[in-house]
């Protein structure tokens, strides 16, 4: 992976706005790399791209095998306990897996180190950064080629590893998303709601992009704010019977399939809060299949960093995995004598991560956050490749179990966090 400086396009902000991006999120503070004084892109070889794609698909298969094992093993409850899944949701997770509830997409964070490709994290429940990967960097690449500004090697023989949108359109084919209601499972005219939370601007970018893809694919879909969802009583029940209530939008339309960028672990917490008041919402919807969720509830098993410890337990010494343990496991003590990373199980965007070098604490780094109350894992430290003083993390996207493209983030910190840049790439 080679970093190369280039000149920012004078009109990149206007182009991003035309493409539907909130430019403020790209520019203030700088997130898209053209917003900095010396922007750079990354050149990868065909061999590197093939290696990333192969590793991505292999890790995805390991993850799916782990889900199958957790759902079917005699000690399934014990494994779900390790993954911090509440007892009330365990059976519905098994049912969701058994009935093959459809997943749409996911992202793997990979380091291309001197030791080969290594998995840092799985982002399989609420992955963001999709629109930047699929649209923004492709528009950059095409503009640089068309404008004659891209004078790096033989441009006629360059490319970009970016088949994300084509694969999303295929995955969002209307025939693949029947209505969730048991009385209309054969329908091909389902209405799929794409929801984001009010004021969650970064999440909104991803949801709006996926909604746009659903429209291009011909899917009957609707963009909503999740805060506006209401309960609707099922036929033959009273309006106060919350155990039978479903979801409807502001227009009163039943929510039969909902794409939500809202983590399952937070839904578990919300449901527990409802239960304390003698109410329930999500469990009845899941058990009756009254509302189908994207991502499905079985993805909760891959939605936290706890799955990294379980993956290592199932596949010790796998060349694509880093040694990882739950912090309270006995084996963690020995790992902690070596350079390692301590990660909050439910942390996001680089929060509550500590990189520790026991022999030389001067290189240690730590990030703050609000995710320190649910436990930690420890993972062997692996250095990321660098360009100048930036650490480079590869986000590899997967749709329909296929590796379909990458998005690269660069951070001066060893912890890839909210200040990271999104850096486009090309292949030559």
Walk me through what this model shows:
The protein has helices at residues 12-18, 23-27, 46-72, 76-82, 87-98, 130-146, 164-171, 201-216, 264-276, 282-288, 306-314, 331-335; strands at 2-5, 40-44, 105-113, 116-123, 191-196, 220-225, 230-232, 246-248, 257-260, 292-294, 324-326, 340-344, 353-356, 365-366, 376-380, 386-387, 390-399, 402-411, 421-423, 425-427. 31% of the residues lie in helices and 23% in strands. The protein is α+β, with helices and mostly antiparallel strands and 428 residues long. It has a domain at 87-98 and 166-300. Strands 3, 4, 16, 17, 18 and 19 form a six-stranded antiparallel beta sheet that branches. The chain has a five-stranded antiparallel beta sheet with strand order 11-15-12-13-14. A four-stranded parallel beta sheet has the order 6-5-9-10, with helices on one face.
Keywords:
five-stranded antiparallel sheet, 428 residues, single chain, 31% helix, alpha+beta, six-stranded antiparallel sheet
**Number of strand elements:** 20
The main sheet comes to: 6 strands, antiparallel
In terms of DSSP E residues, the strand content is 15-25%
Choose one word for the global shape: globular
The residue ranges in which pLDDT falls below 50 over 5 or more consecutive positions are 180-188, 235-243
Report the average pLDDT across residues. Answer: 88
Judged by helices, strands and strand pairing, the structural class is alpha+beta
Radius of gyration, in Å, reads 22 Å
Distance between the termini: 11 Å
Number of helices: 12
Query: Oligomerization state of this entry?
Result: single chain
Helix content: 25-40%
